[in-house]
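[audit] Reproducing an earlier prediction to check determinism. Same input, same settings, fresh worker. If the tokens differ from the archived copy the diff job will pick it up downstream; this log only records the rerun itself.
[audit] input (221 residues):
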Amino acid sequence: MSWNRRYHFFLLFGDTKGENAPWNKEVWRNDVFPKLDILFKQSSFYNKIGVGSLQYSPKPDSQYYEPVKLGRLSWNSPEKWTLNTSTPIRFHHLDVWAPSRGACEKLNSSPDVYLSICNERDALNLTTTAFEWLTVLAVATEIQGDVMSKVIALSKALNAKKTVHIERGWEQKLDDTNWSLVNSIQDTFSFGIYKGDDRSLHEIQFENIEFSPFWNIIFER
């Protein structure tokens, strides 16, 4: 194991918000978690999964928000970070490592499975979005099992608009005419990855984004 491992690398572009967002308690528990848990159980470090989430709550008598102190989070107990529909808290980001980030540092290795979900609207303070959330998923290629079918099932559970795939190393830089992946997998964000400049994907009509031939499209609706 090392930081040079190869991965099935996926981007899932979401088209849900509000009560249907993946961070909604009911949606996560009933639809999303069961599909993701199957993937994470492929790791021998399933009992050492690390979870982090960034959220903001309104400051009393103020127009501003402040970070929510969530404490230690557990993969199998998402009650601390999943949200109810009526909450004023703004969900920004979730990241999950198997094993945890700290364990990866001790092992000097990238994880078996990595996941992040970003709420594009609130995290980027957007009024108009091409997609409501972005999920980054990486599964080490040596992990056994039919990863593609599992990710397609996850895409359906997440109501993804489109899911794309490429194989890459954890820190491998890749680019072509339209796409530029210059950061490590854990640092993949929507801003700046398209057309190799600082354009936001949200400045482009989603149907006009050119995914092929750089990406393999494995799911769309």
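[audit] rerun output stored. Observation attached for the diff report: Strands lie at 6-14, 50-58, 65-67, 90-98, 113-119, 133-140, 160-169, 174-175, 180-181, 216-220.
[audit] end
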